Design the sequence.
């Protein structure tokens, strides 16, 4: 069964550098009532010309009216598309060739990896290339980056099954394959490493995370596939560039499902959307207090003394990304739910652009005294008492006059 562990890898801080917004000439349409704003982002000066990227961003606050001391949720939505903007794609398969992979595991891995190569449609896309690395106690390159589909599959079929497990050495060798495939000048290629393991690394997790950090520092996206119960799930999750790039496969028969999803991510998201990275920064200011650990997904940086946090998302999904946090107002009155909220986009050609969210207004009320209801008087209906009447004398010749009787209002039903 294919199981996606949508957990947030922690412990890695990302330094964010946001471009100045004052000098940008953003063409922004008027924000409609639902808080959606669309921006056509200009390219950076070094690139020249208009960027094809279109950004749709929203910012909402819920509830819009609350009492002082209550909490509100601020949600920022971002969706970016850069049509007709496709860069080269360089992928290295780092495959487990340790002894524990012998038998069905290695056969299923080779079959799934070969289908992945075919899914990339190399013959029809000259800019797409695949390299292959095998690792056990050591790591060795089986294929340089190649656009030849048959050659890449032949290299996959050469992966063995013996020795120990050094995942870190496999990742580092994969990086060398990518480095050797880069041109001498700046490269616009989308680079990725897919590392598969069925056990824990023999030198522990820290070397694996160091190698993964080096890949991220070079702008390489790392996908990790954890095969079977003996795999170090936590380590492979933290090694992946994002939680959505981590896959746990319990049964090797389902390995291709993971490779198929990765192919869709590479071609459909990274190449199809055209956005390499997205940075969003939220500053709530002195009128609000941040509710600890409320930000989703986990932010890359949180600076509580300075009242801000920031998220960093590589290759955002085509359907967009949503960020949220909870705040507690410190002052009553009508006020904006954010002091400043900004975003920076980098497309696959390295061009950067920035925009500013439109903060919604919230109304914060002073809590008033709680009214107390006085107990209502209980109406006690009067009780009529019967009075004895004297029977007329049988000798009386005069007809008796009728006498009036007192009937209480409650008995009569008169309002």
Sequence:
């Amino acid at each position: 069964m294919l199981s996606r562990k949508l957990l947030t890898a922690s412990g890695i801080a990302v330094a964010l550098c946001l471009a100045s917004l004052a000098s940008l000439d953003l063409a922004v349409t008027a924000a409609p009532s639902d808080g959606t704003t669309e921006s056509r982002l200009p390219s950076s000066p070094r690139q020249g010309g208009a960027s094809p990227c279109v950004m749709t961003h929203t910012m909402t606050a819920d509830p819009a009216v609350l009492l002082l001391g209550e909490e509100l949720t601020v949600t920022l939505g971002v969706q970016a598309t850069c049509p007709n903007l496709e860069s080269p794609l360089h992928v290295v398969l780092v495959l487990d060739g340790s002894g524990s992979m012998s038998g069905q595991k290695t056969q299923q891995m080779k079959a799934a990896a070969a289908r992945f190569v075919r899914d990339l449609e190399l013959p029809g896309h000259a800019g797409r290339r695949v390299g292959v690395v095998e690792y056990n106690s050591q790591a060795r390159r089986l294929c340089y980056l190649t656009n030849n589909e048959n050659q890449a599959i032949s290299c996959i079929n050469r992966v063995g099954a013996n020795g120990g497990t050094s995942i870190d050495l496999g990742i580092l060798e994969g990086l060398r394959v990518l480095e050797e495939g880069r041109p001498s000048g700046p490269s616009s290629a989308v680079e990725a490493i897919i590392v598969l393991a069925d056990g824990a690394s023999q030198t522990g997790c820290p070397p694996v995370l160091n190698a993964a950090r080096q890949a991220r520092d070079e702008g390489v996206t790392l996908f990790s596939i954890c095969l079977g119960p003996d795999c170090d799930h936590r380590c492979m999750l933290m090694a992946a560039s994002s939680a959505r790039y981590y896959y746990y496969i319990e049964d090797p028969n389902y390995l291709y499902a993971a490779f198929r999803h990765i192919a869709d991510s590479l071609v459909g998201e990274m190449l199809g959307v055209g956005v390499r990275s997205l940075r969003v920064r939220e500053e709530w200011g002195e009128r609000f207090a941040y509710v600890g650990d409320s930000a989703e997904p986990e932010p890359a940086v949180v600076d509580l003394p300075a009242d801000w946090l920031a998220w960093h998302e590589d290759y955002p999904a085509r359907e967009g990304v949503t960020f949220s946090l909870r705040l507690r107002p410190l002052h009553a009155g009508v006020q904006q739910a954010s002091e400043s909220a900004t975003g920076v986009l980098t497309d696959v050609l390295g061009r950067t652009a920035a925009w500013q969210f439109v903060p919604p207004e919230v109304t914060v009320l002073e809590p008033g005294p709680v009214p107390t209801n006085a107990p209502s008087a209980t109406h006690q209906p009067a009780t009529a008492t019967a009075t004895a009447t004297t029977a007329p004398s049988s000798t009386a010749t005069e007809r008796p006059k009728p006498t009036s009787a007192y009937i209480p209002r409650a008995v009569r039903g008169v309002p």
